[in-house]
Amino acid sequence: MWIYEKKLQYPVKIKNPNPRLAGVIISQLGGPDGEVGAAMRYLNQRYVMPSGEAIGMLTDIGSEELGHAEMIAAILYQLTKNLTPEEIKAAGFDKYFVDHTLGIYPASADGVPFTTAYLQSKGDPVTDLMEDLAAEQKARVTYDNILRLSDDPDVNDVIKFLRQREVVHFQRFGDILRRTQEKLDQKNYYAFNPSYTPCKDRR
Amino acid sequence: MNIFDNMGTPNTGNGRGGSGRVNPMENGTQRRITCSDSALDKAELMHKIQALCFAKTETELYLDGHPDAAPALEYYKELLKGVAALTEEYEAKYGPITAGGVNGERWTWVEGKWPWQYDREEDL
Predict the structure, then answer these.
(1) Residue in A11, A57, A64 nearest the CB of B47
(2) Residue A160 Cα to chain centre, angstroms
(3) Please, what is the Cα angle at B75 between B101 and B52, to 5 degrees?
(4) Which B positions 59-98 lie with beta carbon below 8 A of chain A?
(5) Which residues of chain B make contact with A179, given a CB cutoff of 8 A?
(6) What pTM does this model have?
(7) The complex's ipTM?
(8) What is the pLDDT of residues B41-63, one digit of tens each?
């Protein structure tokens, strides 16, 4: 069950609209390695994890990613405030505007709507945690690329915070992967999937 | 360890002296935003809450991976006290942070700005 707090995890206070930059940053909302995908991945993988530590970590990081999705939406909202049609056309933002006006719609920078196909929930803890490590690296690279494309200090301050969170999440998933592997059979590493035990007595 | 150590303050230009905040503009001139001291207090209080809540989140993730780390748990309990105190102060003065923080005669949850509604002309 989720509680909502009427505050951002980190402040977003952008003074200058920039629809071209918004058109790039939107990938961190609805793109292949964005925050919505991260939240959906972790919050759905958690159900069959074999330990409370793994469930706790996926729940807590997944919930934090929802907060990050909100921050990206706040960036997009502030970057596109009060734009005239001329400003929209000049920035190449017209293709998004025609379908969404200045509304927030999770999609990638080249207009592909968000899809669950961006993530996997394989039902095997080692597999899922490996995916999570990769996901945090992909998100980190996406933030690196945004920093290469942006020279707005208000935006970059927030992007650097979000980028650092990806690095920390990578460390945290590494902790859980190590703990999970230590509990598996050392002699036959992939012998069984602790999240799938069909021989259990169902009575 | 004081949980308020290493917490910066929001960039408020010339600080709390007086009721104005100087906002530099791109062409080098400066514009003074007149605002009440309570707007400044609200911004600074929210900044402190965000900083403390961030430390709380970080500690939660660490404890998920290291549930037996007793010093981390002690630190977490101190953070909880700090967050509760700042939240109580903020909600009494400026409105609810969760719906359960509503008090008084009006449903203030639907009043005021939402977190993404920053306006450079109006807000700190």
Answers:
(1) A11
(2) 15
(3) 45
(4) 60-62, 64-67, 95-98
(5) 65
(6) 0.88
(7) 0.92
(8) 999 999 999 999 999 999 999 99
